[in-house]
Amino acid sequence: MSRVVLFDFDGTLIRGDCVSGLLRRLLSTSRWRRALALLAMPLLLGFMWWRTARLPAMFFLWLAMVGRSEAEYQQACAAFVADFTRDPQRRVIQVAMQRLRAHLAAGDRVYIVTAANESLATAIWAAIDGPPVSAIIGSQIRRGFAGWLWVFHCFGPRKLWALAQVGVLPPFAVAYSDSSKDLPMLLAAHQRVLVEPSARSLRRFRRALPEFELIRD
């Protein structure tokens, strides 16, 4: 039976945070959106830990999209993806991409599991000419309250739930991530590989993980 290998997306396979980048672009287009985002920031900072991250994510997505049509959203996404992937070689974290290709060559089932909305991650993966994987699993959004809302935020322990919905259950063979928010996913894997983690995440990994491999470009 082929092994199951998991990869986080932002900060693990690609540099940068694609959802934050898209939302910044959408919020920057009008003064009132920027102003409201700045006013709300102090209130939402208390909800930035992984168990409740859905609240700020929901608010900023709604604020960025309220009053805009689906066509406007699709146009904004397409323009963002084109800019975000303008230099694919610099955008891709090559050491992680090499590992992903090696797993595919070995016959492993590779899943990309991301907090980004699935359609955005899929578009970016295509734009950087990412190889076919078993699935890209991410957050889901829908129209609501004159804007867009997260139906499901694939973040932290919710990544395990999202994998279970497609029949992928722990224990996994290998999991790759840069973020300590992915500790539930990493702890469910036999082998844990950290990709260019921040100093803060690395401290948390050292406290929580019995062993891991650290790789950098």
Explain this structure.
By secondary structure, the protein is α/β, with parallel strands linked by helices. It has a single domain, classed as Rossmann fold (3-Layer(aba) Sandwich), CATH 3.40.50.1000. Helix content is 46%, strand content 21%. The chain is built from ten helices and seven strands. Strands 4-3-2-1-5-6-7 form a seven-stranded mixed β-sheet, with helices on both faces. Helix 1 crosses helix 4, helix 2 packs antiparallel against helix 3 and helix 4 packs parallel to helix 7. The chain is globular.
The strand order across the widest sheet is 4-3-2-1-5-6-7
Estimate what percentage of residues fall within beta strands.
15-25%
CATH-defined architecture: 3-Layer(aba) Sandwich
Residue share in helix? 40-55%
**Cα-atom radius of gyration:** 17 Å
Structural class: alpha/beta
The biggest beta sheet, please?
A: 7 strands, mixed
Order of helices and strands: EHHHHHHEHEEHEHEHE
Number of alpha- plus pi-helical segments: 10
How far apart the termini lie comes to: 31 Å
CATH class: Alpha Beta
- Number-wise, the strands total 7
Examine the coordinates and then state which fold CATH places here, giving the name of the CATH topology. Rossmann fold
CATH superfamily label: HAD superfamily/HAD-like
Rounded mean pLDDT score: 87
Poorly predicted runs of 5 or more residues: 46-52
Number of domains: 1
Overall morphology: globular
Short description:
With about 220 residues, the chain is an alpha/beta fold. The protein has a single domain, classed as HAD superfamily/HAD-like (Rossmann fold), CATH 3.40.50.1000.
